[in-house]
Amino acid sequence: MIDGVDSVDLAKKYGTPLYVFDVTAIRNQIKKFRSAFEQADLKYQISYASKAFAVKAIYQVMKQEDVHIDVVSGGELYTALAAGFPTDKISFHGNNKSFEELEMAVKNHVGVIMLDNFHEIELLSRILKTDDQKIDVMLRLTPGISAHTHKYDQTGQTDSKFGFDVESGQAKEAMKLVLEDERMNLLGIHAHIGSQIFGTQGFVMLAQKMIAIAKDFQKEFDYWPQVINLGGGFGISYNEDDDPITANEFISKIAAELKKNCDNVPEIWIEPGRSLVGPAGYTLYTIGSRKDIPDLTPYVAVDGGMGDNIRPALYQAKYEAVVANKMDQPLVETAHIAGKYCESGDILIDKQALPKTKVGDILAVLDTGAYGYSMAMNYNRNPRPAVVFVENGQDKLVVKRETYQDLISLDCDY
């Protein structure tokens, strides 16, 4: 059951593979972050990192919840605009924003542009002058802190493609350029140290470092940030080995650190993405073929795979699953959950305990709400799945299933 709706009924109604989101769970997670900030007595903003899952419907939920969002491309910005999301609550991230993307952001009056490099400062300055506009900006810094996650998820260390390096003096050079540009209002500073982080130590160190940087900037430039954005990266539990921190743990510890090191704590922004939508998501599959090899783990195949969830192949991410129509039956074997794509690495779950299964059973993979649909692809010319939102016993289709016609809609004859 997903918020009062039978997942087997959803599979019959919409087909599989199918992404399903429990919207109540998303709203409740936002409330937990809000409550933690209010208990810590901090000025704050919650900004949904929408690269985790970006469709019109999720932007509309975020609008209903009165939170900010951040986007990292013209496509995400276009989707948010089409969803009617208020532009003053949009932050625009990215390490190589194009002239066209920056122009789009300026023309639509986005709330803040996160400046990532000197090229962007030059491009934005030119656009603002040509369009006779002003805009709020923040500097993304690389503070020299590495998160203890997969190497591809680390973004705060000095050797990173993101942000202005603090150690080498890049950050101060960028600060000087922005403060001298009368069309840019420097709202504050930003850093993001990685993703799927389970401990509080990295965040506490980041809070210390950002206050130290702010004090240094104040001494040199007589500038104190209105906002310090500590990014996101809060881990979720994909399997029994994962032990994520709670919103209260994270926020209470950074609040204590900020107040200890600073009399005038700026407004604190965070950017949860995975932690808002990841646990709320399920992917439903129909079980198909099976391969049994003497003395080896059998393979149970489903009608999706790396095309709708690339994370196991890309990051060696571990998930857990249940057979939705046999929740009351005993677990009798362990099997590889294999996808249908023509790659030997297309294994969704390496070893999963299962009841006795047959063709047509519905397998539900848990906690797939983040970086599933957003990273989905058409490899082997497979259409991407539909997306359904469930809330208070009601289900609603929010993204249609792609058709074969959709797959060739952009093809041209030769």
Tell me about this structure:
The chain folds into two domains: 23-276, TIM Barrel, CATH 3.20.20.10; 281-368 and 385-407, Lyase, Ornithine Decarboxylase, Chain A, domain 1 (Beta Barrel). Helix content is 31%, strand content 23%. It has helices at 7-14, 23-40, 56-64, 74-82, 99-107, 118-131, 170-180, 201-221, 247-261, 274-277, 311-315, 404-407, and strands at 18-22, 44-49, 68-71, 90-92, 112-115, 135-142, 164-165, 184-190, 227-229, 267-270, 281-291, 299-302, 321-323, 333-338, 347-354, 362-366, 386-391, 394-399. The strands form two sheets. Strands 1, 11, 12, 13, 14, 15, 16, 17 and 18 form a nine-stranded mixed beta sheet that branches. Strand 9, helix 9 (247-261) and strand 10 form a beta-alpha-beta unit. Helix 2 (23-40) packs parallel to helix 9 (247-261). The longest helix has 21 residues, at 201-221. The protein starts with 6 loop residues before the first helix and ends in a 7-residue tail after the last helix. Belongs to the Orn/Lys/Arg decarboxylase class-II family. LysA subfamily. Pathway: Amino-acid biosynthesis; L-lysine biosynthesis via DAP pathway; L-lysine from DL-2,6-diaminopimelate: step 1/1. InterPro entries: Ala_racemase/Decarboxylase_C (IPR009006), DAP_deCOOHase_LysA (IPR002986), De-COase2_N (IPR022644), Orn/DAP/Arg_de-COase (IPR000183), PLP-binding_barrel (IPR029066).
Supply database-style keywords.
414 residues; alpha/beta; TIM Barrel; Lyase, Ornithine Decarboxylase, Chain A, domain 1; 9-stranded mixed β-sheet; 8-stranded parallel barrel; 18 strands
